[in-house]
Amino acid sequence: MDFRQDENEIRETRSYRVSRRGRALAGALALLTLGACGSLRNPPPKDPDDLADYKAANDPYEPVNRKMYNLQMWAYHKVLRPVGKAWIWAIPKPVRHSIANVNETWREPAVFFSDVGAGKPRRAGDAFMRFAINMSAGVAGFFDVAGLVGYKQHETDPGLTLGTWGVAGGPYLFVPFVGPTNIRDGVGYGISQGLTPINYVPRGYDLLTFNWAYNVAGTMEGYASSIDQIDHLEQDSLDPYSYIRSAWQQNRQSQIDTIKSDDRATVPDWYN
């Protein structure tokens, strides 16, 4: 199955990483999990065919990862899904779109520096323009004006940049309330937090309240917008855990390949 062919399927995997702020803890949580659960590592099989599948899955800690996935889904059905449904009912759709736009806009500096690190000045320029336009004309990011004038949102983060450098991801990990990750991406998302300006909001002047509102509302919107995809996934997939793992890995590799192959000229199209 080619995960790159369907944006809706990509959104399914993104539902398990809705809180980007939590990714700052992913690497530490993953290391602690592995240290505590080393006995739950799956040994490599001896059969050549099984060994090939084992290497392709890149999931030596599958027993503990499945336990973490089950914990996440228990919380989803008991708490997150009902709260997400209430959020959808209570918050008008235009407001929810604005919340999503704010989250994307305030991440643009991290996208910009990640694109610079990947050696992609055109992508970095697009991210810079998105931040500048949406923070001004878009009223602090509530409206995606940049998208309307041709600067479409794109995904780049430090984990993807490390991937373009050839840094291996390491074993697949599932961290509760963070979702699919690996050691490289856990470190990358920690770096991303240092590049996100909202994390430096000072105390006072009600700005700290805005910071909390930004994080809570963004997390709620992420879960709420993913409910349909998660429900369909559970209904249609024989093994949702394996599907999510494969989809997430394919999506991350697809994003790395997209960045590496983006050789557009630095000068925007309208200038030529």
Automatic annotation (TrEMBL):
Tell me the keywords, alphabetical order: Lipoprotein, Signal
GO CC, any one term: membrane
Q: Which Pfam families match?
A: MlaA (PF04333)
Q: Which GO terms describe its biological process?
A: intermembrane phospholipid transfer
Source species, domain of life: Bacteria
What family does the entry list? Belongs to the MlaA family.
PANTHER family annotated for this entry?
A: INTERMEMBRANE PHOSPHOLIPID TRANSPORT SYSTEM LIPOPROTEIN MLAA, LIPOPROTEIN VACJ-RELATED
Q: What is this protein called?
A: VacJ family lipoprotein
Q: Which organism is it from?
A: Gluconobacter aidae
